[in-house]
């Protein structure tokens, strides 16, 4: 009788090839990063800073030589010069991670305030 369980090597390969970006820590500088594939085809594994950029911050990062990505649905999508003409429609832009070269704080989008939805009042 044949064993129908997925072999260990196949599970490991599926984990490596998963398209979703994962939160990690940079092994060199210990900064929080997102690691994932940057495209559906001919993809490269990339590391990105998780803090979202403003649209002007994205343009400044691109002019300084950094790649930028759209972070949507837990996936990184590379933004080229054609896609940078407008703010990303589905998720915030993030920049490529370069150890020891943080971006200026004014390039980052301000943190969004989260509304507290836990209260004891009756909604009706």
Outline the fold blueprint.
Blueprint: H1 8-16, E1 22-25, E2 32-37, E3 45-48, H2 55-63, E4 68-72, E5 75-79, E6 93-95
Antiparallel strand pairs: 1-2, 2-3, 4-5, 4-6
Question: In order across it, which strands form the biggest sheet?
Answer: 1-2-3
Helix content: 10-25%
Quote the distance from N terminus to C terminus.
Answer: 61 Å
Count of individual domains: 1
Number of strands: 6
| SS strand fraction | 15-25%
Structural class: alpha+beta
Identify the overall geometry: globular
User: Which stretches are poorly predicted, pLDDT < 50 over at least 5 residues?
Assistant: none
Short descriptors:
single chain, 124 residues, alpha+beta, 3-stranded antiparallel beta sheet, 2 helices, 6 strands, 15% helix, 22% strand, globular
What does this structure look like?
The strands form two sheets. A three-stranded antiparallel beta sheet has the order 1-2-3, with no helix packed on it. A three-stranded antiparallel beta sheet has the order 5-4-6. The relative contact order is 0.18. Strand 1 and strand 2 form a beta hairpin. The protein is globular, with a radius of gyration of 19 Å. The protein has one domain. With 124 residues, the chain is an alpha+beta fold. The chain contains two helices and six strands, in the order H-E-E-E-H-E-E-E. The longest helix is centred in the first third of the chain and has 9 residues, at 8-16.
